[in-house]
Structure formats: structure tokens, C-alpha cells
Write a structure and sequence with these properties.
There is one protein chain. The chain has two domains: about 35-105 and about 120-435, no CATH class; about 460-580, no CATH class. Helix content is about 60%, strand content about 5%. It has helices at about 30-35, 40-60, 65-80, 95-100, 105, 115, 120-145, 150-160, 160-170, 175-195, 195-215, 215-235, 240-275, 280, 285-290, 305-320, 320-335, 340-360, 375-390, 400-415, 420-425, 435-440, 440-445, 450-455, 460-470, 490-495, 510-515, 540, 545-550, 580, and strands at about 480, 500, 525, 555-560, 570-575. Strands 2-1-3-5-4 form a five-stranded mixed sheet. Helix 3 (about 65-80) crosses helix 26, helix 12 runs antiparallel to helix 13 and helix 16 packs across helix 21. It is globular, with a radius of gyration of 26 Å. The relative contact order is 0.10.
């Protein structure tokens, strides 16, 4: 198979070394019809349609909305439709790209309000991104030289995995996360095979987009950069310092885009909000929420052994044979000096390692979805074994190749198909997929528990809130609220005029919150402090006890009871100047 490459001299394009499997033969330009019905396009379009339909069923029939997905869409919504629309309203606690991808769909809010009220814009964004991930996954298998029957089996097992289906339809960031990771993996494999500088640039660009989607790609960048450095050094001609500089040049090309994204986003955050890394320093970030235990699956009072056991269960659920496959694939890759094996291990494995270290260290939550990269990693390890087997059998076009292709498909079924069952079992096991089990309980459980029923009642709670606010016919800027609190993103996007709310995304939020009376805000909306972590509530922090006593400048106007997983809220009418403002 592929051996380590020598860097070509001059400007001549890089050539694959002797023994490298030939790429696909040059083809004549095809018509749009043939392109649409090609092996790559047809499955992608079919799964895209399926993901969109599934998203519509979840959003409009079952009304199941992942709250992080709602919050990400709400950030994009604030850029367009808040009281103070501006690009900085997208927020800096989460990486921006998942919210950015919803904006094109949110533009059609006036034509189809359900894009906003039912979080369908987020679902469309995740469906498109997951379809893109399917495209990249299949293309990676094809470029690895996996025969058609085996790669179609593996693509189907990836695209139809229960977690892939759910996160392709619910608006979360996992779809975009996998899309960028698989794009990086595909082009890094191509660079390892051909030494093409363009492929290395493409891989770097995909990884930069990956960082703008999820922090876990930092792990991918660190491990993959090590591979680029080592392989670049092994390919370089000459001796000593010149060889080192060649390797460093390759590594710099790979790291420059992601470093630019990392530094650029940090600088913008610093300039706009005064903090370069709000995902770590903000009261709304994971680290602060973990410390307060504000999650369905927290890390308080959980030992290191319990965390590691959970991670082992999650990995086995996504890829039952992952550990064995990693060892066997490593041996095969070493035997045939196939460096392509290193791409999925470092890119997907690096992101996976970041999640595992973060949870083991108590810096994040134990969410099943954080380990989703294990699914494509396990399948690509199988692909490396199948590719090695097929490369050493009958040449393409030989009729005796068919038994090998059938055998490869059978191997793919045996090693990959079990993940469909194990992942589904993990999703509905509260000890592994706690969030997924609760969100989907009313759909699949014959006798949903009280916790499952919470999500079934959320839509009624949201609509009741929106109807109450709409009946007040308030002018813009009438209600001061910290929209990071549970369900508030849903509430705000369901009222007819979202501009009535003054939220932290607005540039004058702190001024209005400091003296609502002077800035003509009529109400303050605040959740029951006994039902949420007070550390994340800027209203309660500035006005302690306001929910119960009014803080000396408000009076209770309306009580919104708890329901559908949402805490109790008090709508407090502003009656005067806050004592703190007077002082």
C-alpha cells in the first residue's frame, strides 16, 4: 500500500510513491443528471431529505427541542431580529458557526414562522451539515480504495446510525462538528497518500472551520500537526536543518488556518465583551455550569473511576470493537507502511481524546453525544483493514475480484452493523444517553416516566408564556431578562414581537438592567432562584431576592408556573428606581 513519500523537487506536482493504489481513472465531464444520480450525490440527497423530514416530525409533531439547539438558533435569531440586531449578538460563550448556519434559514421567518417558533431553522441547518458529513464520509472511503459494496454498507451504517439520525434532525452542533472533522480527515488522508500541498491546505481549512464549530478540534489540531511534522520530515530530502525546515513548513501550513481562527475569535471576543475565552471564563460556560451542577448529567460527586467507566460505556456503544480495531489497524498499517491510518486516528481520535480528558478532569458534562466521533473513527478503522485486503487481491477489472468485494462487504456488515444496535441501546440507557433517553422517552417508551413527560409539556408552557406577553401589547425594550435561563430562548422566539425584551446580547443591557425605571423598561422577568443555579442569573446577582421580595423597586405582575422542564418565572412590574441606583 502507501509508503512514506519523498517530497518532489521544483514545482512539479507531487507523485504517489511506487506501490500506491492508483486513483480513479480520468472521466469525461458528466451531465447534471448523471451527477445527481451518481453514487456520491444520490445517497446524500436521499439522506438529506430523510433528515429534513425527521426534523419536521420532531419539531412539529412531537415538539421535541434540544435546549442547546434552541439556544444556538436564538443566537442567530438575535443577530437578525432582537431589539439591538448586530453581528456581535451571536454571543461568545459558544463557538459561532452553529449559530451562523441557522441565519440563512431564519431570514425566511416572515414566510414560515415555524422556522423560528419550532426551531426548524436549526433542524434544517443540522440536516444539511449531516448530509455533508455523509458525503465526506463516502468520499473518504472511495479515495481509500474501498470497493463499492463495502463502502455503501459502511456509509449506510454511518448515515442511519440512531445518534446520527437524531443529531441530524434536532439542530445541535454535532452535525457540523462531524462534517468538519470528516472533511479534515478526507483531505489529510489524500495528503498522506499523494503529498499534494493543496490537500494539506484543504485539510487545514476544514479544521479551522471545525474550531469555529466546537472546541474539541483543538485536540485534533495538536495530534494531526504531530503527524504532519513527522511525515513531512520523513519525506524531505537532504539532511540536517534543511529537512527540519521542510517539516516545519508543512506543519505551519497545516496549523496556520486553525491558529488564525483560534486567535481571531479570541481577539474579537476580547474586543467586544472584554474576555478572550468566554467558553471557559463566562458564568454561562460549561466550566461554571459544571461547578454549579446545572445539568441533567453533571459531574458533582462523581469519582474519576465512575467517569472513566461512563466513557468506556459510551465508546463501546458507538463502536463495540473500537479497541480491537485500533490495535489490528495499527499492526496492518505498520506492516504495509500505510500512513493514511494516522489521519482518522489523529483527527477523529484527537477530538475524542479532548472530550475524554475534559470529562475525566471534571471540566465538562458526561453527555453521550460528546463521544460521537468514535462512530466514524471505528468505521474508518474497518475501512483501513478492508482497503489493505483489497489492495493485495485481484486487480480491478478482473472477474475474480467479485468474491473479494463480496467478502469485504460481509466484513463491513459484521464489524460495523452492530453499532446500529449498540448505539440505540446506549441512547435509551439513562446511565449512558441520559439526555437522549429523556428527550425521546415520550416517542419510544410505551409507559413514559415523569421525567419523560416533562418534554411533552414544554410546548404548552412556551405557548402560554408567549400568549401572555402578546396580550400586553408592550413597546420595544419593555422587559429586562437574562435569556440564558432555561426555556427563555424558546419564550422569546415565540412571542410576536421579540424586541420587547432587553437581553444580554443587546449592547445596552447592563445600563438598562442597572436602572430599568430610567431607561423606560416596564418589567423585569426572573426565574425562581431555587430552581436554577443563581451564579448564571445576572438579574438575581444584581438584585438579590428580587424574585421573592421585588428588590424594593418592583411588584409582582404575573406568575408563570413551572412546567415542561421550565422553572417558575415572575414577571415583575417596575415601580421605581432600584435602591442600588439611588445609592
Amino acid at each position: 500500500m502507501t509508503t512514506l513519500l519523498e517530497r518532489p523537487e521544483g514545482v512539479a506536482p507531487a507523485q504517489p510513491p511506487a506501490g500506491t493504489p492508483p486513483g480513479p481513472p480520468a472521466q469525461k465531464p458528466r451531465s447534471w443528471r448523471s451527477r445527481l444520480l451518481s453514487e456520491g450525490a444520490l445517497p446524500t440527497w436521499l439522506f438529506l431529505i430523510g433528515y429534513v423530514i425527521l426534523g419536521g416530525v420532531l419539531d412539529f409533531h412531537y415538539r421535541i427541542w434540544a435546549q442547546d439547539a434552541v439556544a444556538r438558533q436564538a443566537n442567530g435569531f438575535s443577530v437578525l431580529f432582537s431589539r439591538d440586531p448586530h453581528l456581535g449578538a451571536i454571543g461568545f460563550v459558544w463557538n459561532p458557526l452553529p449559530s451562523v448556519t441557522t441565519i440563512p434559514f431564519l431570514l425566511f421567518r416572515g414566510v414560515f414562522p415555524g422556522l423560528v417558533t419550532n426551531n426548524f431553522a436549526g433542524s434544517l441547518a443540522s440536516a444539511v451539515c449531516m448530509a455533508g458529513a455523509v458525503w465526506q464520509f463516502r468520499a473518504t472511503l472511495q479515495e481509500w480504495g474501498v470497493s463499492r459494496p463495502a463502502r455503501l454498507v459502511m456509509t449506510l451504517c454511518f448515515a442511519a446510525n440512531p445518534m446520527i439520525l437524531y443529531y441530524a434532525a434536532n439542530g445541535m452542533s454535532e452535525a457540523l462538528y462531524l462534517f468538519t472533522l470528516l472533511g479534515t480527515t478526507r483531505y489529510l488522508i489524500r495528503w498522506l497518500r499523494t503529498g499534494s500541498l493543496g490537500s494539506l491546505v484543504y485539510a487545514a481549512t476544514w479544521l479551522a472551520f471545525g474550531y469555529l464549530a466546537r472546541d474539541e478540534t483543538v485536540g485534533s489540531a495538536v495530534l494531526a500537526a504531530g503527524v504532519v511534522l513527522c511525515v513531512g520530515w520523513s519525506r524531505a530530502r537532504g539532511r540536517g536543518w534543511g529537512r527540519v525546515m521542510t517539516a516545519l513548513s508543512d506543519c505551519a501550513i497545516f496549523l496556520l488556518p486553525v491558529a488564525t481562527a483560534f486567535v481571531g475569535w479570541a481577539v474579537i471576543s476580547w474586543v467586544v465583551v472584554g474576555q478572550p475565552f468566554q467558553q471557559f471564563s463566562s458564568k454561562y460556560g460549561n466550566a461554571s455550569l459544571v461547578a454549579s451542577g446545572a445539568s441533567e448529567v453533571g459531574v458533582r460527586n462523581v469519582t474519576l473511576t465512575q467517569r472513566l467507566l461512563f466513557e468506556a460505556k459510551a465508546l463501546v456503544a458507538f463502536s463495540p470493537f473500537l479497541a480491537v480495531l485500533a490495535v489490528v489497524a495499527l499492526v496492518v498499517a505498520a506492516r504495509f507502511r500505510d500512513t493514511r491510518f494516522l489521519a482518522p486516528v489523529t483527527v477523529l481520535g484527537g477530538a475524542l481524546a479532548f472530550s475524554m480528558v475534559s470529562y475525566a478532569g471534571g471540566q465538562t458534562f458526561g453527555y453521550f453525544r460528546y463521544y460521537i466521533a468514535a462512530l466514524p473513527l471505528g468505521i474508518l478503522l474497518v475501512a483501513s483493514l478492508i482497503g489493505a485486503m483489497e489492495d493485495r487481491q485481484a486487480p480491478a477489472g478482473d472477474g475474480s475480484r467479485w468474491p473479494i468485494m463480496v467478502g469485504s462487504a460481509a466484513v463491513a456488515v459484521l464489524l460495523v452493523a452492530p453499532s446500529l444496535v449498540s448505539t440505540g441501546a446506549g441512547m435509551f440507557n439513562p446511565a449512558v444517553g441520559g439526555v437522549e433517553a429523556a428527550e425521546l422517552g415520550t416517542v419510544f417508551q410505551a409507559h413514559p416516566s415523569a421525567a419523560d413527560e416533562v418534554y411533552a409539556h414544554r410546548y404548552g408552557t412556551v405557548r402560554a408564556f408567549a400568549a401572555t406577553i402578546d396580550r400586553l401589547h408592550l413597546p420595544d425594550g419593555s422587559i429586562v431578562v437574562d435569556n440564558a435561563q432555561p426555556c427563555l430562548s424558546n419564550f422569546i422566539m415565540n412571542v410576536k414581537n421579540p424586541k420587547v425584551f432587553v437581553i444580554p446580547n443587546d449592547r445596552d443591557y447592563q445600563r438598562v438592567l442597572g436602572d430599568p425605571f430610567v431607561f423606560h423598561a416596564r418589567y423585569v422577568l426572573d426565574p425562581n432562584p431555587r430552581q436554577i443555579p443563581s451564579a448564571s442569573d445576572t438579574v438575581a446577582q444584581l438584585y438579590p431576592g428580587i424574585f421573592d421580595t421585588g428588590g424594593g423597586f418592583t411588584a409582582l405582575a404575573h406568575n408563570f408556573p413551572a412546567g415542561g422542564g421550565c422553572p417558575q418565572y415572575h414577571l415583575l412590574q417596575v415601580t421605581g428606581i432600584p435602591p442600588s441606583a439611588v445609592g
